[in-house]
Amino acid sequence: MAPATARFRDSPLLPGNCNACPVRRFASYSAVPAGSLNFLQSARAGQRLLPPKRNIYREEMEADEVFTLYDGWAFTYKLLPDGRRQILEFLLPGSFIGLHVLWFKAMPHSVQSLTPVSLCIFDKEKFRDLLRRKPAYEWELLKYSASRQALADERLSDLGRRTAKERIARLALVLHDQLAHRGLVNGGSFPFHLRQEHIADALGLTKVHVSRTLQGLRHEGLLEINRQSARILDFRGLRELTDYSESPAQERV
Amino acid sequence: MAPATARFRDSPLLPGNCNACPVRRFASYSAVPAGSLNFLQSARAGQRLLPPKRNIYREEMEADEVFTLYDGWAFTYKLLPDGRRQILEFLLPGSFIGLHVLWFKAMPHSVQSLTPVSLCIFDKEKFRDLLRRKPAYEWELLKYSASRQALADERLSDLGRRTAKERIARLALVLHDQLAHRGLVNGGSFPFHLRQEHIADALGLTKVHVSRTLQGLRHEGLLEINRQSARILDFRGLRELTDYSESPAQERV
DNA sequence: CGGATTTTTGAAAACCATCAACGCGGGTGG
DNA sequence: CCACCCGCGTTGATGGTTTTCAAAAATCCG
């Protein structure tokens, strides 16, 4: 049998050098001057490669590591006792994972890989020290936390006050913009690693209804999502359907 | 005509002295040693009293002040172009208001007073300086932000995956616990300043349905909410209905 | 007391969920 | 190389939760 890592051809090995890190500009510490990255480096406890559907954290459990998502997609979620699942957030490369473990014993949500994933690992205590000794990192993390909160605000409005069609259209636009920012969009189409069930669990719908709604959007020539990729067919149409502003609030600095 | 402040008999004047501040233990900087509160003091730009239904921030607008809610209730919300409203969070005394303005030009949501409210005002630039010069404050604010995020996670699960009855019951339990923490609960009953429409807009329902669901909960002897106060009638019943854990995640340190 | 706000009630319809079955495609093993 | 299986998406029929619209009753406030 092939070594476990053989399954991860798409997950390049981490450079082990924060200065050279290609996802640094999407990370929370993107504004920290490259010169002081050796402090970050010293908190690094290595890397980890995971296949899809593996838990990085589990709700209610304690943890002693925090992470930066180096490559691949993941998501945070909560499970109800009867099996209902709510996906809270999709995580793309550069995402900081585990803010909570810096203070709290029990994780408020689980985190799971969606694709093969590579993680940059930091020891919890060392990361705490880093933040306390280098306030520039702390400052950036606080800003990062504020910007994620703005995204959460929008998602909450989606679930509370928008129709299935609007929710799905907006999710596509958000992912589009986040991937465009990383240079991964090509003429409106971009890699898309969610199953319809993920869309359903993120947007408070059933997978059956997601399937039907997706077909509606396709037939109206607005949006096309299949197994591997998504494509925005009609930006204008989607924008007026969804009241989606071009520059999301959390990026208007 | 009486001076504007005459309407606010219930809003005691602020002490103007952070050491003596009675809401300090609920505020983000609760763990900052009392000795270094003079730094906080120096960033203070005074106080402000507002009647109910006044906006503290408005979505999309720029601001140059941040606040601590000293007394009264408020809430954050977003408005859709067609008038639909989503309430994101209810704010109780001690809440820090305006994290976003420290970095971003456009507020991601509006904030409005629910009752007469008194605010502790900080100049944005001075508060930024405070955070940068006194990392203890920054650290506490980051922790505070993480704990609010855990609350947002629960609310998102409510909207995405729970029924109207579960949502309302959980909202009551959350407010109960927050007020109990402040010593404002008396035998299961506590002050309650939301109209049914606020509950509806917070939980993604219509006010008509909230009215009907509230009657259901009352008839089942679980929960009673009227204009001034709420009362938990059956903790056990509510807990098993809602899967609500006694110590919410954000407080399990 | 009078006007505005809030809550309640009723009937009908919309949106989405549920249940169940079928189809499609990619990977695996024979 | 083909058959099979499994994960995923599709389709249809039906039902339930919640919405919408409209109006009346109750409460608050000046």
Explain this structure.
The structure is a homodimer of 253-residue chains. The longest helix of chain A has 27 residues, at 135-161. Chain A has helices at residues 37-43, 124-133, 135-161, 164-181, 196-203, 207-219, 235-242, and strands at residues 44-50, 55-57, 65-71, 74-79, 85-91, 96-97, 110-113, 117-123, 189-191, 223-225, 229-232. In chain A, α4 (164-181) crosses α6. In chain A, a hairpin with a 5-residue loop joins β4 (74-79) and β5 (85-91). In chain A, strands 1-8-3-6 form a four-stranded antiparallel sheet. Chain A has a four-stranded antiparallel sheet with strand order 2-7-4-5. A three-stranded antiparallel sheet of chain A has the order 9-11-10. Chain A is an alpha+beta fold. Mean pLDDT of chain A is 90; it is low at 1-11. Chain A folds into two domains: 8-149, Jelly Rolls (Sandwich); 162-251, Winged helix-like DNA-binding domain superfamily/Winged helix DNA-binding domain (Arc Repressor Mutant, subunit A, Orthogonal Bundle), CATH 1.10.10.10. Chains A and B meet through β5, α3 and α5 of A and β5, α3 and α5 of B. Chain B binds a DNA duplex (30 and 30 nucleotides) through residues 163-164, 195-197, 205-212, 214-215, 227.
